[in-house]
Amino acid sequence: MNRFLPPAALLLLVLASVSFAQTAPAASPSPASSPKPGMSRAQIRNRIIATDKRLWEAWKNKDGKPFKTNLTADAVIVGEMGVMGKNDAVTGIPNMPCEIKSYTLSDFKVTFPSGGTAIVTYKGMVDGSCQGTALPNVWASSVYVNRGGKWMVASHQETAMK
Asked: Within 13 Å, how many C-alpha atoms sit on residue 117's CB side?
């Protein structure tokens, strides 16, 4: 079953991206889906990367609050343990049986399939364990949507590196 999880997760991510792209306005974007006036793509990119880094730090510190403020209400998170939503992350992170000593994030790439959607991909190298089992290094991706002028995570997916 584990060999089917990465392709299924990728399919879910692609479908979510297409779904978000189709719900974006075709003509002029509404104020809620537009970047703040004067924000360049580079500034949005930096903001998105900084948010993902804050979420990793919150995960390391078992702090669910940043997940509450940075995930959309309908967020989907896919990992080797399965699929969870925002509430699962907010309540589960503080109680996870894991110890993360350190992590390094690199190789960031941000693409904008539509004006109100961004996809960030990167590599996560982790030194930690859950219940005595070493955590894998991962390839990660997050889909961000602009809601009310704030870039929020609508989907996050991780695939263990081989």
From this structure: 18
| pTM for the structure as a whole | 0.76
In our burial notation (b when 16+ CB lie closer than 10 A, e otherwise), range 105-142 reads beebebeeebebbbbbebebebeeeeeeeebebbebbb
Residue 159 half-sphere exposure, CB side, CA atoms within 13 Å?
18
pLDDT reading at 52 higher than 90 = yes
Q: Which is nearest to 56 in space by CA: 92, 93, 84?
A: 93
pLDDT in tens, 81-126: 789 999 999 999 999 999 999 999 999 999 999 989 999 999 999 9
Largest CA distance in the chain: 53
Return the DSSP state at 40: -
Beta strands in the chain (DSSP E): 71-79, 82-85, 98-114, 117-130, 133-134, 138-147, 150-160
pLDDT band at residue 72, thresholds of 50, 70 and 90? very high
What is the DSSP track for 84-98?
EEHHHHHHHGGG-SE
